[in-house]
Design goal:
Blueprint: E1 2-5, H1 13-23, E2 26-29, E3 47-50, H2 58-67, E4 71-74, H3 84-89, E5 93-95, H4 102-118, H5 120-128, E6 146-150, H6 154-165, E7 169-173, H7 179-184, E8 188-189, H8 192-198, E9 201-204, H9 218-223, E10 228-232, H10 241-249, E11 253-258, H11 280-287, E12 291-293, H12 302-320, E13 330-331
Parallel strand pairs: 1-2, 3-4, 4-5, 6-7, 6-9, 7-8, 9-10, 10-11, 11-12
Antiparallel strand pairs: 5-13
The structure holds 1,4-dihydronicotinamide adenine dinucleotide.
Length: 333
């Protein structure tokens, strides 16, 4: 059975090839993204595999249905890139990998925080040029400071525990709080306003929904402490980018670290080093000395890639054997 895999990168291949071979699935690696324009390349395939920046809107799903596709396997946890209502109406099932390695993302958030705070990226470049001065590299002790975690699911919980281990005081917000877990660790849930106004470091781990879109906006940015750090490894649109740029220009924030961006499509995961960057907001963000951006690499560990390929392939193999029960992986509107 052949399964087209869109937006394929070199690091995907070994894991999907190995798991596919064991399950009798031959992945067809397409370097381009899936959109309504490229959907015809799925013709004759029952199943396809996509990633975070494929555009699986109604138009694309209609073309997929016409091409004979019955199932779309997301090799990621988030599913905001899919029009689930259209998928249901067209009879296309959508599955994902709900948990592959929450540690990978939480640890990347820590890497971003430590880099932002201690400016190791700037120190590294300086020292390579034999500039051994320390001017402009002052950070602060995380120990004793307050971290606010927005979204205490799998990733947020792990990050909260790591930062608690640093000696930080933890504030949590989640509309579905796990007080049993928090109480056992002497951490506290607080209203979102309090989290914004009390935290020295805020890290976002909520899914992107209509409710969480622009959760960080001009109003909530105003509530934040002067000099606070904002970390986003969740989804780009959790932050209103122009409002963030405004806050950075006013020197309201100490620093911002982003692994995700509002408009990643066509930019993140691509080598544009020989090209012109057309996204002015992204270019502006990159111009601030206290903004650190990585290109959606929170998931990028061997452990996570291996688990993503294993779970995706197992579920596809089960579906292709006509076993319709795909535990915990199905997403629906
Ligand atoms: P999860 O589903 O385990 O946890 C999400 C938590 O957010 C839940 O506890 C939920 O109740 C909470 N939540 C829902 N609405 C909220 C709101 N309005 N405010 C605050 N919290 C809210 O998800 P997990 O695995 O922890 O992942 C979190 C997010 O991280 C994903 O939705 C995805 O967007 C992102 N992610 C990023 C990756 C990267 O490579 N940068 C990789 C994997 C996930």
């Amino acid at each position: 059975m052949q399964v087209p895999l869109y937006d394929a990168k070199s690091y995907d291949r070994p894991f999907f090839e190995k798991n596919g071979a064991e399950a009798g699935i031959s992945y067809l690696f397409h370097p381009f993204r899936l959109t309504a324009e490229t959907a015809a390349t799925a013709a004759g395939s029952t199943a396809i595999c996509v990633f975070v920046n494929d555009v699986i809107d109604r138009l694309c799903l209609t073309a997929l249905a016409e091409a004979g596709v019955k199932i779309v396997a997301l090799r990621c946890a988030g599913f905001n890139q899919v029009d689930l209502t259209a998928a249901r109406e067209l009879g296309i099932r959508v599955i994902r990998v709900p948990a592959y390695s929450p540690h990978a993302v939480a640890e990347h958030a820590v890497a971003l925080l430590l880099t932002l705070n201690r400016k190791t990226h700037r120190a590294y470049n300086r020292v390579r040029e034999h500039n051994f001065s320390l001017d402009g590299l002052v950070g602060f002790d995380l120990h004793g400071r307050t971290a606010g975690i927005v979204g205490t699911g799998k990733i947020g919980k792990i990050l909260a525990e790591i930062l608690h281990g640093f000696g930080m005081s933890i504030r949590l917000y989640d509309p579905k709080p796990d007080t049993h877990w928090a109480d056992a660790r002497r951490m506290h849930y607080v209203p979102l306003d309090e989290l914004f106004s009390q935290s020295d470091v805020i890290s976002l781990h909520a899914p992107l929904t209509t409710e969480t879109r622009h959760l960080v906006n001009a109003h909530t940015l105003d509530m934040m402490k002067e000099g606070a750090y904002l970390i986003n490894t969740g989804r780009g649109a959790l932050i209103d980018t122009p409002a963030l740029i405004g806050a950075l220009k006013r020197k309201k924030l100490g620093g911002v670290a982003l692994d995700v961006y509002e408009v990643e499509e066509g930019i993140f995961f691509e080598d544009l080093s020989q090209d012109v960057l057309h996204d002015d907001d992204l270019a502006r963000l990159l111009s601030f000395p206290n903004v650190l951006i990585t290109s959606h690499q929170g998931f990028l560990t061997e452990d996570a890639l291996s688990e993503i390929a294993r779970v995706t392939t197992e579920n596809l193999a089960r579906f292709l054997r006509n076993d319709c029960f795909l535990p915990n992986t199905e997403v629906s509107s």
